[in-house]
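Researcher: Here's a chain I'd like modeled. Treat it as a single chain, no partners, no ligands.
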Amino acid sequence: AGKVAFDPEGLLSAMPSVVTILIGLWAGFLVKSPKSLESKMAEIAAIGTILTLLGIAWHGMLPINKALWTPSYVLVTGGIGMLILFLLTWMIDFKGWKSWTGPFVVYGSNALFVYCLAEFWAGAMWTFIKFPNPNGEWTLAYLGLWNSIFQPTFGDYFGSFMFAIIHVVGFWLILIPLYKKKIFIKI
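Model: Modeled as a single isolated chain. Structure tokens:
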């Protein structure tokens, strides 16, 4: 009640989303550049800091709003993304702390495939895969799992978190044999 319907993917939101893509492209060019690791890290950290501060400053005139994909949102999230890239580059490439990256490497090896698989799975659970509910009736799997297992066991918020974690781990288990056999699906 009281909410106004709007199209979050209209022309005014499309332009900032293109800028988001360009920030990611910029980050990719920096990572792939022939500069020294220290130089790349300094540039990534500087750009991340500047973008974040510009977005925060712009927030006073145009609030940070994901639903509308405002320019301030683009700058803040792009800046934070660059700062996270800096942190990960420092940890993995500069310090050599790689032992914890295994699950992420498995996911990254077939990232597009697992994204498509997750989209298909979510759609299937909402449309044609059924799950028995406590009354013995069959209901859509998404609702059945939520109402029978996750919500009663963990509550609303932690149940939602656990539902997501179970799916992330499940998809990871599907990807492990592909990774071990060096099967990389290109889409």
